[in-house]
Structures are given as structure tokens and as C-alpha cells.
Design brief:
alpha/beta, two-stranded parallel sheet, 12 strands
């Protein structure tokens, strides 16, 4: 076993919290089990004791619902009316059947949803076809979050839904930096040429993977001017992951090589176990101004915003922040 510590900026699968199997794994994002706990807390606070669950077939949906069911058992006072799955190769009839099944337990109006955009659309559409808009209280995980794609032209069926999204911030300064990158000033990034071709839909060199018909790049194209640009939501976490490793190495160097600058023999021979100890004990102010720390499983703290999709006569429909979950629920 290579004892190589990893710090992830994106993996939220609950099983990665298992310190017996993934002992060298840490992450600056919270595991999905934390949002499942947030959902349990919402259900308890609302005083609902009879709910159904619905998952897209696959790891994300099924593991999320498993976590919710386990945590709701531990919390007590919540009965699961039924636990349904949306098949991979679904047809409209599958969604109609799910709505029929959910209506069999009429008093379980709250439905916990860990599902893909496409499956959320499918289920909202089916609730309209069955003329059941307003019957269900949807509680959606971060795959729904505050996105418009799952509810576009289905807004009436989404009204009242409560959804969750990990707290994230746009990093100021990153856009100016990234939009100023060119083929000239960004040679150190070995994937940048490939990104350039993809982004501007043009061809740079003869060894290009793009087809013959693509026009040639001039190299004068500009990101955000000649192409659409939007900051990727995970930029904050990429920065935090890199800094977590940097802080760990810095603290390790300070302890093991007090008289020297750079790496000394003691640090060279320290090994992965020792580095892991330093990673797990970092604590610093992250790129979004919140603290970066790890628990004993290597997980970041859970910080989520809670939204409700509301219809307002003045401002029209939209997601409104109704609270947050940071280890505990704070509902507005």
C-alpha cells in the first residue's frame, strides 16, 4: 500500500469517510452524509414524521438516500413510507408510476430527493400530468440546489420545494486572472492548448484532436470576450485543497528542519503517515474567508445554504435563502 495522502476538492461520496478503507484521504468539501443530516433536521423541525425517499439509480442517489434513512433511524420519530428508485433508462411512464406509488401513501407528502437534473424534471412533469401540483413537499439535495435547469418551464410544480447547496463563494480576483491567460503567458499549463481549442472551437496544430473542418486559432482570441466565461463553482475548494497541502508541508518543514530552509533529510524520510498527521491538523482561513479544518475522518465541516423555491407577486418566482446548516439547523 502506497501511503500517499490525498486532498480532494470535489469528492463528496459518504463511503470516503471510512477511515479504515480510505485512511490517507482528506477533503475540503463535506461528505453527502452531512446534507442527509441537514435533511433529517429539516424534517424533524417541520414536525413531519412520515416521509418517502426518491433516488436516481447510481452511487450519488442511492448512497444519499441510504445516509438519510440511517440518520433518520438514529434520530427516531421519522417513518419512511416508501423508498423508490428512478431507473437509469427511464421512460415517461416510469415517472407516472412513481407518482402513482407516492400517492398510495397519501399522508407522506414530504419526499426526500437525491436525483439528477433530468430525473427532477421527469418527476415534476409527472406530478403535473397527474394533476398533483402542490401535493408533494419536495426536499432536494445539492444536485437540485439553486439551479434553474431542473425546473425550467416547470416552475409551478417546483413551488415550495426546499433545497440544499454547500456554501460556496465566487473568488474575487480569479476571473481577472483567468481571463488574462493567453497561449503566450500560460505555457506552464500543459493542458491549456487543449482547453484553448475546446473553448474557442478552433484548431491550433496539426497534431490537434479536432477534425479537419475546424477553423485555425489565431492565438489572439480572448477568454470571456470571444467565448462565454463563468467561474467554475469549485474554484474555492481547489484553492483550499492546495493551501491545505502547503500549510501541512510548511508546518512539517518548520518542525523537522528548524535550522534550514527547504527540505532536510528528516523531511525527506518522514513518509506519508507523518505528512497525513500534519494535513489533518491544519487550520487556516480559506479562500472564501471560512476556516479550513479536517475532522478525524479527514472530512471538512458541513456548511450548507437552504433555499425554498417561492412564488412572489412582486419579484416573481425564484429561490430564496430560508436558512443554513452548519453542524446544526438554523431556519429563517
Amino acid at each position: 500500500m502506497n501511503e500517499i495522502p490525498q486532498v480532494s476538492y470535489a469528492s463528496t461520496a459518504p463511503e470516503l469517510s471510512d477511515d479504515r478503507r480510505y485512511d490517507f484521504f482528506s477533503r475540503v468539501v463535506p461528505p453527502d452524509s452531512f446534507q442527509a443530516q441537514a435533511m433529517v433536521d429539516i424534517v424533524k423541525t417541520m414536525g413531519w414524521n412520515y416521509v418517502s425517499t426518491l433516488a436516481s439509480e447510481g452511487s450519488y442517489g442511492e448512497k444519499g438516500v441510504d445516509a438519510f434513512m440511517q440518520l433518520s433511524r438514529e434520530a427516531g420519530g421519522i417513518c419512511i413510507a416508501q423508498s423508490l428508485k428512478i431507473p437509469h433508462d427511464h421512460k415517461a411512464a416510469d415517472f407516472d408510476k412513481i407518482i402513482r406509488l407516492l400517492l398510495d401513501t397519501r399522508y407522506a407528502r414530504a419526499v426526500i430527493l437525491f436525483a439528477s437534473d433530468e430525473d427532477i424534471r421527469g418527476i415534476l412533469n409527472a406530478s403535473k400530468r397527474a394533476d398533483q401540483v402542490g401535493h408533494f413537499m419536495w426536499i432536494g439535495s445539492d444536485s437540485w440546489g439553486a439551479k434553474n435547469s431542473p425546473i425550467h418551464q416547470l416552475e409551478d410544480a417546483a413551488v415550495g420545494a426546499v433545497t440544499i447547496l454547500p456554501k460556496r463563494a465566487m473568488i474575487s480576483g480569479f476571473d481577472a486572472y483567468f481571463m488574462s491567460r493567453t497561449l503566450e503567458n500560460n505555457r506552464r499549463n500543459v493542458w491549456f492548448a487543449e482547453y484553448w481549442e475546446e473553448n474557442f472551437n478552433c484548431k491550433l496544430m496539426s497534431s490537434s484532436k479536432r477534425d479537419e473542418s475546424s477553423r485555425k486559432c489565431t492565438g489572439q482570441e480572448r477568454i470571456g470576450i470571444d467565448s462565454k466565461y463563468e467561474q467554475e463553482g469549485k474554484v474555492q475548494f481547489v484553492i483550499d485543497a492546495v493551501y491545505a497541502m502547503a500549510h501541512a508541508l510548511h508546518n512539517m518543514q518548520r518542525d523537522l528542519c528548524p535550522e534550514l530552509s527547504g527540505i532536510c533529510p528528516d523531511m525527506d524520510l518522514a513518509g506519508g503517515k507523518k505528512l497525513l498527521k500534519y494535513i489533518r491538523s491544519v487550520g487556516f482561513n480559506g479562500s472564501a474567508g471560512t476556516s479550513v479544518t479536517f475532522n478525524r475522518n479527514g472530512d471538512a465541516p458541513g456548511r450548507y445554504d437552504l433555499f425554498q423555491y417561492q412564488w412572489n407577486n412582486v419579484t416573481g418566482p425564484g429561490y430564496r435563502v430560508i436558512g443554513q446548516w452548519t453542524e446544526h439547523l438554523h431556519l429563517n
